Amino acid sequence: MTGQVLNIGYVPLVDCAPLVIARELGFAAEEGLSLSLMPQPSWSALRDMLVLGHLDAAQMLSPMPVAMSMGLGGLSAQVDALMVLAVNGTVFGVSRALAARMRDRGAVFGDVSAVASALAPEARVRIGVPFPYSMHRLLLDYFLERAPALQGAAIEVVTVPPRRMADAMERGELDALWVGEPWGSDAVLRGVAELWLPGQAIWAFSPEKVLAMRHDRIQAAPGTTRALMRAVYHACRWLDAPRNKPLAIEILARSEHLDLSDQTIDPAITGRLTPAQGASPVEVPQFQLFHRHTANFPWRSQANWIAERLGADAEARALARASFRSDLYREVLGPLGADLPGASEKIEGAMRHATAVASTKGHMILGPDAFFDGETFDPTPES
């Protein structure tokens, strides 16, 4: 290895791709960095390794820095989200036996209301999520609270590491899962699950993973932090170019990264999900974004929404907002030519279609960000 070595933690999922591409295609080397990518068995293990200083930075579930700013769960440390690595990219699936019953009750892939109505009559549903402070859990909770058919439904939420989700379903320990790709498609290919909802059916533009670093490390090594942000930004932009998707799949499939077949990784990169064995692929717009629609910008309103869902008071919400470093993002990536939104907060859920907003270059197009129930979240203190 040449360049300054950085130990970067990740959990094997398709949305670790920006880190892999930054290393494999030389974006990190161009910044004088050598990324040592260190896979972790679970999100709790990754969190502890980062807090204890064994990792310089990490791919993290977007709610984790917010939860840590609130003092929730595990070891305590101030961890900042430097940028968003990926928007969306999760799926809700159920066992094949449950899928058959839901199909008889009129469930349709992607139809939140029909899926809720088909799920509601079940006496008990055990749903796996990868971590308590995850977007998966927040989307599931929102779904359960806001879908009228599911009021009072008997739901048990179980924490299972992503890679073990299909195994748990195969052993009969889960009836359903909410997981990031490729593990939903892996469960389909293994014949143990069928998919019913992509995550964006609940919230059309949810920040899924972030590039995280300890706050004191950012202050102690500002040059290194900036170099890492630039390298990952270039990798994210490369990933969202359609012509690069076949090579991205090939690189991710290698044994040292995900060690899975191209067929398993393809749906997340192309946005063409196969809901069940033998079914035709379904095109899911905006299934996973690495760069388009300003996906990398750490909106403080998103942190605010997460904090509110975690039960934060006004003081804790302020700390949560500060953990999403839109200030640093502007400072580092503005000079690189990145177009930046005019504000760092917006009303979440207000855009049902792609919308032009003010930016440093005039205007930019943001993607739809609506919640399935039509509600919005105003991040101003008066809300």
Could you explain the architecture of this structure?
The chain has about 375 residues and is α/β, with parallel strands linked by helices. Helices cover about 35% and strands about 20% of the residues. A 6-stranded mixed sheet has the order 2-1-3-10-4-13, with helices on both faces. The protein has a 5-stranded mixed sheet with strand order 7-6-8-5-9, with helices on both faces. The protein has a two-stranded antiparallel sheet with strand order 11-12. The longest helix has 18 residues, at about 220-240. The radius of gyration is 20 Å and the shape is globular.
Q: Can you give keywords for this protein?
A:
alpha/beta; 16 helices; single chain
Concise description?
36% of the residues lie in helices and 21% in strands.
What would the average pLDDT be, to the nearest integer? 95
Estimated structural class: alpha/beta
Largest sheet: 6 strands, mixed
Number of strands: 15
Arrangement of strands in the largest sheet: 2-1-3-10-4-13
How many helices? Answer: 16
Strand content: 15-25%
C-alpha geometry: globular
Instruction: Kindly report how far apart the N and C termini lie.
Output: 51 Å
Rg over CA atoms, rounded to whole Å, is 20 Å
Can you give the helix content as a percent range? 25-40%
Low-confidence stretches: none
Question: Topology of this structure?
Answer:
Elements lengths: L3 E7 L6 H8 L2 H4 L2 E7 L3 H9 L5 E5 L1 H7 L9 E10 L1 E6 H9 L7 H8 L5 E5 L5 H12 L8 E5 L5 H6 L5 E5 L2 H7 L3 E6 L8 E8 H6 L1 H18 L5 H8 L9 H9 L1 E2 L8 E2 L4 E2 L10 H10 L4 H10 L2 H8 L21 E5 L2 E5 L17
Parallel strand pairs: 1-2, 1-3, 6-7, 6-8
Antiparallel strand pairs: 3-10, 4-10, 4-13, 5-8, 5-9, 11-12, 14-15
